[in-house]
Give the backbone structure.
Amino acid sequence: MNALTNPSEQHSSAAERGVILIVDDTPDNLALLSDALDEVGYMVLVALDGLSALSRIQRRRPDLILLDAMMPGLDGFETCQRIKADAATADIPVLFMTALTDSEHVVKGFAAGGIDYVTKPINTEEVLARVASHLRTARILQTARAASQAQPLTLNDEPAYATLSARFQLTEREVEVLRWVACGKTNRDIGDILGLSPRTVNKHLEHVYIKLGVETRTAATSVALAAMSERA
C-alpha cells in the first residue's frame, strides 16, 4: 500500500470491498486466511470460537463468514444455525471450512444454512475465488431485493407469476416453489406449505436451477427478483 495513504481511507476502502469474518480455533489457519484476504483488500474480522463469533457479529456485521465446522464448545454447525435463526443476520453467506469431506458432514453443513464449503488444508486461492463469487451473488440479491421493495413487487402477484413462467418456461408449481425459496423457506417448510414431500420440492427446485441457469437458492432468488424488477 502507498505509505502516504490515510489509514482511515484504507479502512474505508477495505470495508467497501467486503467485511469477512473468519471463525477458527486454530491460530495458524486464522493467520493464513487473514493475510490472504487482507492482501487483496478485504476487511478481516476474526473469532476463535462460536460464541465469540456470535458476539463479534453483533458489534460489526460481516458481509460473509468463513466458519470452521469442528470447534470445541459451540461447533460450526450450531453457530451457523444460530446465525440463520436471527433475522438480522440470516442473509449473511456462510462458507464452512472442514477436513470432513464425507457426505454426512457436507449435508449437515448445508442443512445448518451454509452456502458452500472449502476443505482443509486450506487452499487460499480457492478460498479467495469462492469468497469473491459468493459476495457478488449476495450483492446482486441485495440490489434486486431493494429494487423489488421500492416498487412493491412480490412473488405472489399474478403478473409476477406470468413473467417468470413466460421468461423461464417455469411450471406453476416451480414458480410456487421459487416464491417460497425467495421468502427464505427451507424445502421442508415449502413442502408443508404446498403439501409436498421435501424430496418432491427438491426435484422442482432442481428444475428451477436448470431453467434459470443457476446453482444456488440465493442465485435463483436474485434472478427471479431481477426479472420482476425489469417487468416494472
About this structure: The radius of gyration is 19 Å. Strands lie at 19-23, 43-47, 64-68, 94-98, 116-119.
